[in-house]
Amino acid sequence: MAIVVTFDVPDGGRDLYETVIERVTGGKGFTRLSDIPSAGLIAHVAGPMEGGGWRVTDVWESPEALEAWAKTLGPVLADLGFADMQPSITPAHNVVVA
């Protein structure tokens, strides 16, 4: 079952996002889903929130795929001072991709 994972980072912004991407991709950047070193990512969207902050929303194939990704993402977030950040996770009813 696909899941939707959303991180709202009120104290974050584009610079923090780019730093995370730099670290998790080993400096390769993120322009394709395959750039993320974990299988199961279906979609990714990131951008500013109204009123400030940054939002990242992913669709993962399964909770297990997210758990595997968390093993890479978690230490990076902890190193940047965001160890306690918890995403909102909801089941996806329908996922359509191009």
What is the top-level CATH class? Answer: Alpha Beta
Shape: globular
| Number of DSSP E strands | 4
Q: How are the strands of the largest sheet arranged?
A: 2-3-1-4
H/E element string? EHEEHE
Question: What labels would you give this structure?
Answer:
single chain; 98 residues; alpha+beta; Alpha-Beta Plaits; four-stranded antiparallel beta sheet
Q: What can you tell me about this protein's structure?
A:
- This protein is an alpha+beta fold.
- It has one domain: Alpha-Beta Plaits (2-Layer Sandwich), CATH 3.30.70.
- Helices cover 29% and strands 27% of the residues.
- It contains two helices and four strands.
- It has helices at residues 14-24, 63-79; strands at 3-9, 41-48, 54-60, 88-91.
- It has a four-stranded antiparallel sheet with strand order 2-3-1-4.
- A hairpin with a 5-residue loop joins strand 2 (41-48) and strand 3.
- The longest helix has 17 residues, at 63-79.
- The two termini are 19 Å apart.
- The model has no long low-confidence stretch (mean pLDDT 96).
Compact summary:
The protein has helices spanning 14-24, 63-79, and strands at residues 3-9, 41-48, 54-60, 88-91. The two termini are 19 Å apart. Strands 2-3-1-4 form a four-stranded antiparallel beta sheet.
